[in-house]
Write a structure and sequence with these properties.
There is one protein chain. The protein is built from 17 helices and 20 strands. The chain has 471 residues and is an alpha/beta fold. The chain has 3 domains: 108 residues, NAD(P)-binding Rossmann-like Domain (Rossmann fold); 194 residues, Mur-like, catalytic domain (UDP-N-acetylmuramoyl-L-alanine:D-glutamate ligase), CATH 3.40.1190; 131 residues, Mur ligase, C-terminal domain (Protein-Tyrosine Phosphatase, Chain A). The chain is globular.
Length: 471
């Protein structure tokens, strides 16, 4: 799509005009920088504001755009007063007083996803949900590549959506968070899904109902709806007047699991696609992810057998159910990306045998008692660490033995002392990481380093300290 056509759409949908509009980009992170480059390319007048005194990417940004006006160290109301439009990065709450006041004074909210949607004429697949969205987004991207399609993959995962425009792709696959969706109105995806809904980000959303409402925005438009038949909140989102595919690992659906002669198969209606045993990922929740990816792919015309071949080669994401090592018969699994209750519960329920769980961090306001049933069913014991360890301990109400650790090294050592051969130790925190780590990747890397430190040069496990007293 050329610049004139894009500008015409922006003017029609958002009254955005290069001649008269003044855009304030709120947040100088990856998304904010992508918005700045986009606006510059269309000759819009814009400025950037960030509450931090020196955002981490500021020096890099000034090398790229030395003349861009940037305000830091707070949200100066004077900058908001002159803005006709605000592009607020997902990491910034819309409840900031300066933003609330600007909207009340007539400023319009536009998201980077709105700008993106007005700038492409290739189909978009939009993927949201509490858990699994990064896995499904990456799966579908690999499926499209295997089919020989030029695909752009990003959004909340990896490359910001607006930076994908450089690819001039034939298909775009976007992972979208609730924070991106709550400020987006122009998206009309060819296929979209909310994979599941569980308590998450309740420090930013009023309650789970509001959180689910923001997730549901991914279905705006006329595209194919991909519905998780195992999640009642998602099932209630289905519009009976639109084309939809359902997926399930528990019941018959358009895409489902079926058992035959003692083996399970991924199915599309009555058509057998592939044995579940050929999916190289741990946990039954990954079967649900694969079924969702297949349904999305079929919705945009990908060949089923090509998609299955891509699934057979899919190795999963770093820090998502990633096997780190097997030491003295104990399997160590890094699921640091499980930053909420639903992700942790799904990981636990993917195991046939009970596991030793390492969890904890910043619970983000979630009711951790919702994790207790999965822990009671699937955990032999739990090692807790981080800011909300005591809160989680209280919520579990002694349903399993609970142990305390001050840091990851100590947590790994305690778990090693609890685990027997044939069992698994699972890092699946159910919490955000920022109380102790840079991000979930840093947390997962610290776990991996601590696990590998258990092995001495001869390949045997290092000596473990005695199990520590429960909290």
């Amino acid at each position: 799509m050329d610049n004139a056509a894009i500008t015409a759409l922006l003017k029609k949908n958002f009254a955005l005009d290069p001649q008269t509009s003044k855009v304030l980009v709120v947040g100088l992170g990856n998304t904010g920088i992508s918005v700045a480059h986009y606006l510059q390319g269309l000759d819009f007048k814009f400025a950037i504001i960030d509450s931090r005194a020196k955002p981490p990417m500021m020096d890099e940004f000034f090398q790229q755009m030395p003349d861009a006006p940037v305000f830091t160290g707070g949200f100066d109301e004077a900058a908001f007063k002159v803005a006709t439009h605000l592009v607020v990065s997902p990491g910034v709450s819309l409840n900031e007083q300066a933003i609330i006041k600007a909207i009340a004074n007539g400023s319009k909210i536009v998201s980077d996803i709105d700008l993106f949607a007005c700038s492409v004429d290739a189909p978009i697949v939009a993927i949201s949900g509490s858990n699994g969205k990064s896995t499904v987004t990456t799966m579908l991207g690999e499926m499209a590549k295997a089919a020989g399609i030029q695909v752009g993959v990003g959004g909340n995962l990896g490359t910001p959506a607006l930076d994908l425009l450089k690819l001039n792709a034939q298909l775009y696959v976007l992972e979208l968070s609730s924070f991106q969706l709550e400020r987006t109105s122009a998206l009309n995806a060819a296929a979209a899904t909310v994979l599941n809904v569980s308590a998450d980000h309740l420090d930013r959303h009023i309650d789970i109902a509001e959180y689910a409402h923001e997730k549901q925005r991914v279905f705006r438009g006329e595209g194919v709806m991909i519905i998780n038949a195992d999640d009642p909140v998602v099932s209630a989102m289905q519009d009976k007047h639109r084309k939809a595919f359902t997926f399930s690992i528990d019941k018959k659906a358009d895409f489902h699991l079926e058992c035959s002669n003692g083996a399970e198969y991924l199915m599309h209606n009555e058509c057998c696609l592939m044995p579940l045993s050929e999916l190289p990922l741990e946990g039954r929740h990954n079967a649900a992810n694969a079924l969702a990816a297949l349904a999305l792919g079929v919705s945009v015309g990908l060949d089923e057998q090509v998609m299955c071949d891509a699934l057979r080669k899919f190795k999963g994401l770093s820090h998502r159910m990633q096997r780190v090592a097997e030491i003295r018969g104990v399997t160590w699994v890094n699921d640091s990306k499980a930053t909420n209750i639903g992700a942790c519960a799904a990981a636990l329920r993917g195991y046939a045998r009970k596991v030793i769980l390492i969890a904890g961090g910043d619970a983000k306001g979630a009711d951790m008692s919702e994790l207790a049933p999965a822990i009671k069913e699937k955990a032999k014991s739990v090692v807790l660490m981080g800011k909300d360890a005591a809160l989680i301990k209280q919520a579990l109400n002694d349903c399993v033995p609970v142990y305390s650790a001050d840091n990851m090294v100590q947590a790994v050592q305690i778990a090693a002392g609890l685990a027997d051969a044939g069992e698994s130790v699972l890092l699946s925190p159910a919490c955000a990481s920022l109380d102790q780590y840079k991000n979930y990747q840093d947390r997962g890397e610290k776990f991996t380093k601590a696990v590998l430190a258990l092995v001495d040069r001869s390949g045997d496990a290092a000596a473990f300290p005695p199990s520590m007293a429960a909290i």
